Amino acid sequence: MPVITLQYDDLEKLTGTDKETIIKRVPMIGADVERVEAEYIDIEFFPDRPDLYSVEGAARAMRGFLDLETGLSEYEVKPPRVSISVSEEILKIRPFLGCAVVRNVKFTSSSIKSLMDLQEDLHWGLGRNRKKVSIGVHDLSNVRPPFRYMAVDPSFEFVPLDYTEKMSMTEILEKHPKGTRFAHLVRDFEKYPIILDSDDNVLSFPPIINGTLTSVTERTTDLFIDVTGLGEAVYTALNIVVTALAERGAQIEFVKVSRPDSGELILPDLEPKTRFLTKTEVKDLLGMELSLEEIVKQLERMRFGAKALDEETIEVNVPAYRADILHNYDLVEDIAKGYGYENIKVSIPETYTPGKSHPISLLRAPVNEIMVGLGYYEVMPFTLTSEKINFENMRRQKTDDVTYVLHPISEDQTIIRTTLLPNLLEILALNQHRELPQKIFEFGEVVNNEITGQHIAAVSIHPQANFTEVYEVVDALMREMMLPYEVKESEDPAFLEGRRADVYVRGKKLGVFGELHPEVINNFALGYAVVGFELDLNDLIG
């Protein structure tokens, strides 16, 4: 989950209250305080609330939660003066585009940092590491509309951000730090996405890097924002960014987007979505009966628009920046937050049933304790993945024991994982900005032939990672679990030949360990040596 750094001066100014009150109350809106420093506070917001990934969004929510400013936030949007056209070719590469202009921005070093941090956190939270959503923020004064979103040959040259010399798009993918990190998102296409102005100046090479011409500084006052991607999360990300800037007094302006498939769009669309909630739904979920007036009050405290239509029904206007409201259950959850979990009366259940530890829990506890003692941090990745991640990126052949998702909502979540290691490598890829070494493990579920099993896996990344290191970890784990074992030469293609071994217990293969193959490391865009192991623990569960 993203950790947001909030400067007290900025937070108090935008919130209208003191830092002590904020520190005391902010956990109740769905956050954990990571650390409290003299000049700032680090807060970990839950991943379902990307609108809180900035000081502006957090301040907006806190003003409502503290009854300083309740109800729906409304933003004036000026008529469009800027337009952008979308080419036919780009629809096959990165088809979704959202744009806006924001004028009269008054930047400081802290507000620029807040915007850049919001951009990167949205890339992770909504964008799946830029694959589904990538955001470009540009100084509008250095380019001339109308703009064009199109596909060009990889030999096209421009000066990328943080560089002074022109590079071809191919060279950017091979040499620029951002290019090498995100090259896999566009490398397979014959042409690459680009946003140009009327003089052929480059604004952006999405989802890789901006042009240096539109760099944002403290002198920037007018912004052009582009959000490209593979789905409608593009529009949510756009709404979050522009409303965050509007919270500082900036003026949002529409952009006219001309598309070959659906005609003309006027963006951003900040119109709230309307839902209808009943008292009965609230009572059924919360277990307590609230009056219509109380329900409306708590919804407004959580920054929704709300009004009673009759004695049973409330009309709720959901802000355009709230990506998490998918069902009325989500509204009821926010009502509970507004009311205060601490104010909900505790009651003893009418029925009592004794429980006992599940056999899996009885195994998990000591295994987790061993791994933590060996210096590893536990992680809990998603169990849904894709064939590309599960097999292709690991250099493993696809097997017939895969369980497919019948109606996947994303090409990244089409199967249930059959192994844990790919998920751990994905986490390493998402945390390359963290210091090394990084050592993580998971005790989790896999599904093979529609049968759920329990595995333990771990990875370690740092420049000196080697076979001896992971062998020692496996040996310590097996010794502490009091499992006599033997190792034999492995043929697992995910690991480097000569530096890999299979683990056997009582003649049965339990798993594998070794140094990950360089091709696997490159497939996950990792820059250092990685070692790891994975063991099947099904036979150990009592």
The structural class is alpha+beta
| CATH architecture assignment of the largest domain | 3-Layer(bba) Sandwich
Helix content: 25-40%
Low-confidence stretches: none
Shape type: globular
Number of strands: 28
Mean pLDDT: 93
Q: What is the CATH class name of the largest domain?
A: Alpha Beta
Characterize the main sheet: 10 strands, mixed
Strand content is 25-35%
Keywords: Aminoacyl-tRNA synthetase, ATP-binding, Cytoplasm, Ligase, Magnesium, Metal-binding, Nucleotide-binding, Protein biosynthesis
Subunit structure: Tetramer of two alpha and two beta subunits.
Enzyme class: ligase
Main location: cytoplasm
Describe the structure.
This protein has four domains: 3-66, Phenylalanyl-tRNA Synthetase, Chain B, domain 1 (2-Layer Sandwich), CATH 3.30.56.10; 77-267, Phenylalanyl-tRNA Synthetase, Chain B, domain 3 (3-Layer(bba) Sandwich); 273-341, Phenylalanyl-tRNA Synthetase, Chain B, domain 1, CATH 3.30.56; 359-540, BirA Bifunctional Protein, domain 2 (2-Layer Sandwich). Helix content is 27%, strand content 30%. It has 15 helices and 28 strands. The strands form six sheets. Strands 4, 5, 6, 7, 10, 11, 12, 13, 14 and 15 form a ten-stranded mixed sheet that branches. Strands 19-23-24-28-27-26-25 form a seven-stranded mixed sheet, with helices on both faces. It has a three-stranded antiparallel sheet with strand order 1-3-2. β26 (495-505) and β27 (508-516) form a beta hairpin. α8 crosses α10 and α9 (292-301) crosses α10. The longest helix has 17 residues, at 109-125. It is globular, with a radius of gyration of 26 Å. Pfam families: B5 (PF03484), tRNA_synthFbeta (PF17759). Tetramer of two alpha and two beta subunits.
